[in-house]
User: What shape does this take?
Amino acid sequence: KGVGSSTAAAPAADPAGAETRRSGAEEGDADAPGRSSAEASKPGTAAMDYDDFVRFMVAEEHKDLPCSLRYWFHVLDVDADGVLGRKDLEYFYEEQESRMVELGEETITFAELFNEMHDMVVPDVQGCFALPDLIRSKLGVQVVDALVNIRKMTAWEGLGCQKAAGRAVHLRDTKDWDVFMERQYQRLVEAEEDEAD
Assistant: This one.
């Protein structure tokens, strides 16, 4: 939190970041953008070495990969309890909200964002997002972007507005948004059918 660029990065000394580096090796995932605790940077250093930077960039640019979602999950899990709860998400959204204000963007309340995320992901446990929930929903990318990357968050919001207005959109991959919109449409249809009965 407090990083001046458009993407918030966890410093090497951050406990969530250290947990991230261990996660890939412990789970036997050779593709995980992390490293074993033996290779981790020395505690107390806030610098990112080249390997950390490469892992961060892979995780940032390829959030649709399960290993990248795992990386971001551990960064966002501030209290390290294995789920992303309301406090974890709000911690990161406060920074995004202040950036949106600085950029003159319209903001939404955290409660609205949390409800939207909940509707997108449909977690197994009400109010808590587990890593399998994010992966299963295929919308974990949007959850992470809403919390750590202001440019990508506003791009997705703009995409939704353009699609709602019936305009052509040219972002490189809209399948995640299409999945979400189809799911929302089905919910509305089912709700109308229930009301009719």
Q: What stands out?
A: Residues 49 and 96 are 26 Å apart (CA to CA). Confidence is low (pLDDT under 50) at residues 1-32, 34-41, 161-165, 167-172. The first helix runs from residue 15 to 26.
